[in-house]
What we know:
A: mainly beta, 8-stranded antiparallel barrel, B: globular
Amino acid sequence: MEAGKYFRAGDRAELANDGVDRTIDLAPFVGTWVNTMRDTQGFAKLIVSHRDGKLFVQAFGAAAPELCDWGEVEAFAFADRVDSRKGAGFDAHYDTGSIEVAFQANMNLGLLVLLTFNRFKDGDSRAHYICREFFHR
Amino acid sequence: MKGAQKMTFRDFTSVVDYRTREANSGPSRVDPSPFRGVWVNTNDSAPHRIAKLVMSVRDGILMVHAWGYCTPDPCDWGEVPAEVFADSINSQTAMSFTATFDFGFMETKLQTNLKRGTMVIATTNKFSDLSGRSDYYTREFFYQIDDD
Lengths: 137, 148
């Protein structure tokens, strides 16, 4: 595989070939995030943590009388540029067996903005759908 | 964990997923036509932008052809199929799509949504070539132009 190729001018390898450590800073994501809509019917809470340099997310769906714990999955962090280590967003993926949910999160003005892509499996009559929610610490 | 019940595997993840009479039997068919056409980036100064998208529908599948900003000519990313999403389980109108471009040295995923005539595209870009480049995220905005 040839190193240094690009398909956008901002991806040129020479922008990042200075030997600087670009391990992405996970700190902006870490914490307990609560949905800004108290009566949400989607995700009420996210716990984002890191261990051994890896990022993890634990999601809690709105349910009564207690929140529904989706368990913890690994998340993958992204910087804001090829030459940056500033954490700008992450993605993660849940698979319940009958539904797949892809998380795509980004930070904006102190909020965590979560877009979920919900796919029903096996020819389900329900449409695949997206949902956008906002969380504060 | 106190205050939460462990997820039981079932066919819904929240109350908005409950089946209703509007969600009839048979596979869902979300209409991808709102995306059909030519879309250009609102920001012509970002060096890591997608410059243009041409989207078409073939055999009911949304196809995405993208060009990255490069000089002197745009970089042609080629065309890939997309998966469309509605805004609710009962809707048949596409509000979003996802698509993946695999360049070998980098994988770029597009995750989009429509908002008031604007298409918002988030990309996640993962490098596999050990070039030292950071995996990175972008959020870009596009508007539709006439395709002639």
